[in-house]
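Annotated sample (chain length 243).
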Amino acid sequence: MVMELLTSHASVRKYKDVQLSAEEVRDLIHAGQHAASSHFVQAYSVIHVTDTAKREKLAELSKNKRQFLSAGAILIFCADYARLEKAAAIHGKTINYSFAENLLVGSIDVALFAQNVAIAAESKGYGICYIGGVRNAPEEISELLGLPKGVAPMFAMSIGVPDEANEVKPRLPVEAIIHENSYDASKYDDLLPAYDQTMHDYYLHRGSNQKDTAWSQQMAEFLHEPKRTYMREFLKKRGFEMK
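Output written by the structure step:
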C-alpha cells in the first residue's frame, strides 16, 4: 500500500473549491514532524497562509496565481534557526548558524519534513504540488509573512482536492540512480538515450501539454543559465552566511 502510494505521485495544480480545515492541516503537519531530523534540531517552520489578501500577494510574487488562489491549503516551508536561538537563550547561550553546514541541515530538515506532509496528504486522497516560485521574491515574501532573521522560505506546497488526474512521469531507471561500491558514469552512455526516448514518447502522448522534447534536452536548457542568482545575498541577510 505504501509502495503503491509513493510510486503513484503526480503533481496536482488544479483543485476543486474545497478548503482544508485548520484541524486537517494540523494533522498533516503533525505527521510531517515525525520525519528524521539532523541531531533532532528540527530546523523548520511552516506558515499556513489563510488570509486572502496574503494569498493574492503570494500568487503575484511567486508568479503562480492558479495554485495559490485555488488550493485547499497553502503552506510556506522555511528553514528556521530563530526558534533554536530562543532555545539556546534559555540557557544563557548563543548559537552560530552562519556556516554552510547549518544551511544544509536546515534545508535537509525542511525537505524531509515537507515530504512527510506530502505523503500524509496524498494518503488522505489530497493532491499536492511543491512550489519553488516563492524563491522568485524571497525578500518580499519574508516581509509579507513577518519572517525574522534566521528564517528563510525554501518552497511552498499547495494541497487540495484534485480537479485533474495527471499521469505519473516515468522516472530515470533505477540502474541510473544506484551505484554499487563506486560511482559509475560510463553506464549513462546507454541509459540516458534510452530514457530520453521514454520521456519523448511520454511528452508526445500524455493527456495534456504535449511537447516534442526529451529529458536531457530539457535539463541542458534549464541548467545552461544561472537561476535566482540573488539567493546567496538573500540568505546571507537572513543569517546564513555560508562561511
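Annotation: The chain has two domains: 2-167+225-237, 174-220.
Annotation: Strands lie at 44-48, 73-80, 127-131, 151-160.
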